[in-house]
């Protein structure tokens, strides 16, 4: 029975030692886990720094390329006649104004991307570096505190192990003392039983003294073992109390460590990490959003200029800029020959009848020409409307090309079926060229017809005026001042 209890005690102690060892291994692995977490965060921040460093270089390179592009065409513009005229009266053609604004927008984007590069280099990257330093520093401090906490756990578990062994030792001694006490009590009972049987014999042989001394000896052994048992039992009780108290304290400390202290230690390692990372990334977002805001502001200016594209206004500006070229020439004066003093159309006989005949012929022909030219004009207007519909079709929306949720294949299929696909472009260009050819042929026909009408109409009006004055003067000579209509009097 004693050996069985001894084996059980050894198993209990071995299980306890295994449990303590597992806790110590957990504590070591916790530090490894936190250290790996810190290293992964530092690696993440290093990757972010390298990414934004390269992105800054790309933005700066892009900024310089945009600036060179704008400067290349700006230098070309500065020597142009339109620019000289602009410097003179600050008055640009609407199309040239759009071109100037595109160049200004390019310069603006160049400056904005240079600013973005500077923000990445001198703000965002520095923030990531500071966060890395904070992680290393905080992990070191958290590890120092964790080591103290681990030492405290090891200390309380060792104390528990000590008081447990003390309790087991005293309990073993108490059991041994109790066993010896029971043996003494059995010997005493046995002796008393023998004494009862020997009393009669003693009366016969008169041999009582040795027996009494033996009984007293047994009683003394019992008393001694009783005292030893009581002493060991008291020690065992005290040791058990100490063990139970230390057990409760140890369990409380271990529970507090795993439930609260570990979480608090991780919080110490994380102190400010997410907040600092969020602030850094929000700096990146702010820079990008402001870049887009600036870009949209510039594009809005260009869009307003595009909305104000006006061919009529540009036409008048061109004619005003080159007024000497487009100004009507001076009227042709009547030049008499060899002292001829007659400078008026004469409606006297015998030319009056001829003039009247010519007048009616002109009137009839004008009526026919005006009807024909009006039909040409209607066809010309309809053709112009068709051209306008072709030229103003809303084919500029390319939002489908920026649908990132779609796959690459679907984007390619959308592009191939779009308005600007090669097949559609060739078809539209062919239709446009045919319509333009028809339009210009009709326009030419309309100009020729209108020119002929204006010439015949001038002759018709002059003859009408001359014949009318001739009738009022009857046989007098009707004269019209040549300086009012002589430039219309070309031979019919």
Structure description:
By secondary structure, the chain is mainly α. The protein has 2 domains: 9-193 and 213-292, Up-down Bundle (Substrate Binding Domain Of Dnak, Chain:A, Domain 2), CATH 1.20.1270.60; 348-391 and 422-470. Helix content is 84%, strand content 0%. It is built from 11 helices and no strands. Helix 1 runs antiparallel to helix 3 and helix 8 packs antiparallel against helix 10 (422-473). The longest helix is centred in the N-terminal third of the chain and has 112 residues, at 94-205.
CATH topology category name of the largest domain: Substrate Binding Domain Of Dnak, Chain:A, Domain 2
What is the total number of structural domains? 2
Computed CA radius of gyration, to the nearest angstrom: 59 Å
Total beta strands: 0
* H/E element order: HHHHHHHHHHH
Low-confidence stretches: 200-206, 474-492
Strand content: under 5%
In terms of quaternary structure, what is this?
single chain
Q: What is the name of the CATH superfamily of the largest domain?
A: Arfaptin homology (AH) domain/BAR domain
Termini separation comes to 152 Å
Report the structural category. Answer: mainly alpha
- Biggest sheet, in brief? none
**CATH C-level of the largest domain:** Mainly Alpha
CATH architecture classification of the largest domain: Up-down Bundle
Q: Determine the fraction of residues in helical runs and give it as a percent range.
A: over 70%
The tally of helices reads 11
Q: Give the overall shape, derived from the CA principal axes.
A: rod-shaped
Give the rounded overall mean pLDDT.
81
Keywords: Coiled coil
Protein name: SLIT-ROBO Rho GTPase-activating protein 3 isoform X3
Organism: Notothenia coriiceps
Domain F-BAR: 18-314
């Amino acid at each position: 029975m004693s050996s069985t209890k001894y084996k059980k005690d050894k198993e209990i102690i071995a299980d306890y030692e295994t449990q303590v060892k597992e806790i110590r291994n957990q504590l070591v692995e916790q530090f490894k886990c936190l250290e790996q977490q810190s290293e992964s965060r530092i690696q993440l921040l290093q990757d972010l720094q390298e990414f934004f460093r390269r992105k800054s270089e790309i933005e700066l390179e892009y900024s310089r390329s945009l600036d060179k592009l704008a400067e290349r065409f700006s230098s070309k513009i500065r020597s142009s006649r339109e620019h000289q005229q602009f410097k003179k009266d600050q008055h640009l053609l609407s199309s040239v104004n759009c071109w100037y604004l595109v160049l200004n927008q390019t310069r603006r984007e160049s400056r904005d991307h240079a600013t973005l590069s500077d923000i990445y280099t001198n703000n965002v990257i520095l923030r990531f570096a500071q966060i890395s330093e904070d992680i290393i520093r905080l992990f070191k401090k958290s590890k120092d505190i964790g080591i103290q906490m681990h030492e405290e756990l090891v200390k309380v578990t060792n104390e528990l192990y000590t008081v447990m062994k003390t309790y087991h030792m005293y309990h073993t001694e108490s059991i041994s003392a109790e066993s010896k006490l029971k043996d003494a009590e059995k010997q005493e009972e046995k002796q008393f039983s023998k004494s009862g049987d020997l009393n009669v014999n003693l009366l016969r042989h008169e041999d009582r003294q040795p027996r009494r001394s033996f009984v007293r000896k047994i009683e003394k052994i019992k008393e001694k073992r009783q005292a030893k048992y009581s002493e060991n039992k008291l020690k065992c009780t005290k040791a058990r109390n100490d063990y139970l108290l230390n057990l409760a304290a140890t369990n409380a400390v271990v529970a507090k460590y795993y439930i609260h202290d570990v979480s608090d230690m991780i919080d110490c390692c994380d102190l400010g990490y997410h907040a600092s990372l969020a602030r850094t990334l929000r700096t990146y977002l702010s820079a990008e959003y402001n870049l887009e805001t600036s870009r949209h502001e510039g594009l809005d200016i260009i869009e307003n200029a595009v909305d104000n594209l006006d061919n009529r206004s540009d036409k008048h500006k061109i004619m005003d800029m080159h007024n000497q070229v487009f100004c009507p020439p001076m009227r042709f004066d009547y030049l008499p020959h060899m002292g001829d003093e007659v400078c008026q159309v004469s409606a006297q006989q015998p030319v009056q009848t001829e003039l009247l005949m010519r007048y009616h012929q002109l009137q009839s022909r004008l009526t026919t020409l005006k009807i024909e030219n009006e039909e040409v004009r209607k066809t010309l207007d309809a053709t112009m409307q068709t051209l306008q519909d072709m030229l103003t079709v809303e084919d500029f929306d390319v939002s489908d090309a920026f649908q990132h949720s779609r796959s690459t294949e679907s984007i390619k299929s959308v592009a191939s079926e779009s308005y600007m696909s090669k097949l559609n472009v060739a078809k539209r260009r062919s239709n446009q060229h045919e319509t333009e050819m028809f339009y210009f042929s009709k326009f030419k026909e309309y100009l020729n017809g209108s020119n002929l009408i204006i010439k015949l109409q001038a002759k018709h009006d002059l003859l009408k005026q001359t014949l009318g004055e001739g009738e009022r003067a009857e046989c007098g000579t009707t004269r019209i001042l040549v300086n009012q209509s002589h430039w219309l009097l070309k031979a019919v």
